[in-house]
Amino acid sequence: MLVLSDGSLANADADDPGVAAECWLSAGGRRSVCSPHAVSCLGQFAVLLRRKHDVSLLELRNVAGMPFREAEVCSAIGDTVSSTGRTGPGPRTLAEALRLELAHRMDKVLVTGATGHLGANLTRRLLVDGAAVRVLLRPGGDETGVAGLDVERCPGDLRDEQAVRRAVRGCGRVYHCAARISTVSGGEREIYETNVTGTRHVLDSARAAGVERVVVTGSLGAIGRVVGKPSNEDVPFNPFEVHTAYTKTKVLVEQEMLRAVCQGLDAVMAVSCAILGPHDYFPSRMGRTLLKFAKGGLRAYIDGGFEFVTTTDIVAGHLLAMDKGRTGHKYLFGSGFRSMDELMALFADVTGRDRVPVKLPAALVSGVGRIASPLLGKLLPGREQLLTPAAVRLLTSRRRADCSKSMAELGFVPTSIEGAVRDAHEHFVRRGLLPAVAS
After folding, report:
1. Of 46-55, 190-199, 290-299, 353-362, which range is least confident?
2. Which residues, 6 or more positions from 362, have their beta carbon under 8 angstroms from its beta carbon?
3. pLDDT tens digits, residue range 393-424?
4. Is a pLDDT exceeding 90 seen at residue 138?
5. Distance between CA atoms of 310 and 316, rounded to whole angstroms?
6. Does the predicted TM-score (pTM) go above 0.85?
7. Which long-range contacts (CB under 8 A, 24 or more apart) does 222-229 make?
């Protein structure tokens, strides 16, 4: 919010009575330094506060500039007991009521990407913790991930700056989890605009609205790697390796976060590995692999492995980053490395099916994929591709994560990957996507 020297509002948010209230408070409660429009908005807000906080009629009439008739209507509501059950020797002052109401508004937590694998789990954890959660939902998108949840739904696309501003306004904390993920060619412009431009919109809106802190979700792929060693937060990204458009944008997302920090925003990055666990509604690449395996449709796999993180751990990591992280720092969260051999054995144990019999050479799959994937993308754009060239590169890189910084600074303690796979399978069963395993 921009407040001019005379106390008047200088931006499009002037239509928000809450912003007008902030203006009035910043001016020391002096109506004379507020713009006429701000006073009008404040009067509208005060009508509501009269009922909720027992604001003095005299203040509503003389300080906020409310019409006498409206004050009389408020008087008829009741003078001694508010809708919150407050009783006391006298009514609150308008300033007290405004501060209480604005503090309540700033208790809200905004989650972007709440329908995704991470966001759906994070939103549920926040609700369990008693937070008032607002979610930004793309118009026309699949909202299964938040169906039935007690959240405030705010429609808007990350690429729409005004929609993002409306979503951020009134929130004290923001978790920016949303991203456009892809390992196939095509759609690079949409990936960039959603991930990079969208992140800029979130961070700029948060700074303008006075948000307490933002946690931005990062990706292990945007951290550099050293052959034969686990990667930590300090390994620089190598731009000369082959990367997907998604990975490139996540590097730029980190730069956007650092830019915002330099401009005064309190922001931290929580870096995720490949996620395993329940509430995988789209589902993710590993979720689709588990579904195929359980249904007997996964005929082969390739050698390789990756660092995975359970939904429990990546959610805990975001909360720890919000509460304890150092401004401008990034923290890496992983639950452990598993080879594809180990993962297939785990899938067999959880689903009760035989292990997949065929392990294909990665070089063969990669060579075929470089030719077939672009053709499939053009001829059959809606067809699922699990082993894209990018996916093969990720698996054969056998990346491992060094989470010692998160453990030492934040107290992060990883949980069981095996438990996360079981939870993911059970959730698919509960949703009717898989039959229950006979005991």
Report:
1. 46-55
2. 302, 303, 304, 392, 395, 396
3. 665 677 899 999 999 999 999 999 999 999 99
4. yes
5. 10
6. no
7. 222/247, 222/250, 222/251, 222/253, 222/254, 222/271, 223/271, 223/332, 225/397, 225/399, 229/400, 229/402
